[in-house]
Design a protein that fits this description.
single chain, alpha/beta, globular, 217 residues, 10 strands
C-alpha cells in the first residue's frame, strides 16, 4: 500500500503563499480528487507531492521516506501535470520509448499496451506535432501509466477529451485503483470529478479542506 503524508506543508513563492499549512494523508485504495478554481493551489500541491518543488515549511513523506532528504522523487510515480509535453518530431511510441529508457523498467510491448489502453495506435508513425489536443492528452495519460507506478498524479486528465474520452479515463482510473495504485487527480468540472473520485478535497487560496456537498447542487 502506498501512502503520502503532508504535515503542515506551506509553499511560498516570493512573498506569496501558494500552499498554506496543508496536512493530509492520501492512501492507495481510493481515488482522491482535488477541486478548486485556477490559482487555488491544486497544481502546486501536485508538484510538491511529485518532488518537482520542495515546501518552504513542513514535511512530505512518501511511504515513510522524507521527500527532499531520504528521496529526491517518489520511487514509483507516474504524473501528468499541466499540459503534456513531448518531442514534436517523434511519434507517440518513440516519445514514450525515450521516456521509458530513463529507468529501463518496461518493454516495448508494455509501452504499446499503454498506448492501446488510451485508444491510440502504437504503430502510428504520425509525428506528435500533428496530434490533436485530445490525442496529446491521451498520450500524456499513457506516459503516466505505462510503468505501472505505485503513485499516479493526473492534473486535469479530462482536458480536451470528449465524452468517450472521459469515460475512458474513468475506466483507466478504476483499473489503476484495482491494481493498488495511489491516485490523485484534479478537475475543474465538479460533476466529472465526482464521477471519477472516491474522496474529494477543496483547495481555496492554498488551503485544503474536505469537500462538503452544498444543498444547491
Amino acid at each position: 500500500m502506498a501512502i503520502i503524508e503532508l504535515d503542515h506543508v506551506t509553499k511560498k513563492i516570493r512573498r506569496h503563499t501558494v500552499i498554506d499549512d496543508v496536512t493530509v494523508t492520501i492512501q492507495s485504495g481510493a481515488i482522491t480528487g482535488l477541486k478548486g478554481i485556477n490559482g487555488s493551489g491544486k497544481t502546486m500541491l501536485m508538484r510538491l507531492v511529485s518532488g518537482l518543488i520542495l515546501p518552504t515549511r513542513g514535511n512530505i513523506h512518501i511511504n515513510g521516506e522524507l521527500l527532499g532528504k531520504d528521496i529526491t522523487f517518489p520511487r514509483s510515480i507516474g504524473a501528468l501535470i499541466e499540459n503534456p509535453a513531448f518531442l514534436d518530431a517523434y511519434s507517440g511510441f518513440d516519445n514514450l520509448k525515450l521516456l521509458a529508457s530513463i529507468q529501463g523498467k518496461i518493454s516495448d510491448e508494455e509501452i504499446e499496451d499503454a498506448i492501446r489502453r488510451v485508444e491510440l495506435n502504437p504503430k502510428d508513425k504520425k509525428k506528435y506535432r500533428k496530434y490533436s489536443l485530445g490525442m496529446k492528452q491521451r498520450l500524456g495519460i499513457a506516459a503516466a501509466i505505462m510503468e505501472h507506478p505505485e503513485i499516479l498524479i493526473l492534473d486535469e486528465p479530462t482536458n480536451a477529451l470528449d465524452s468517450d474520452g472521459i469515460e475512458l479515463v474513468r475506466d483507466i482510473l478504476h483499473q489503476e485503483k484495482e491494481r493498488g495504485a495511489l491516485i490523485l487527480i484534479s478537475c475543474h468540472d465538479l460533476h466529472i470529478l465526482q464521477a471519477l473520485s472516491d474522496v474529494i478535497y477543496v483547495m481555496r487560496e492554498g488551503r485544503l479542506s474536505p469537500y462538503e456537498k452544498e444543498a444547491s447542487e
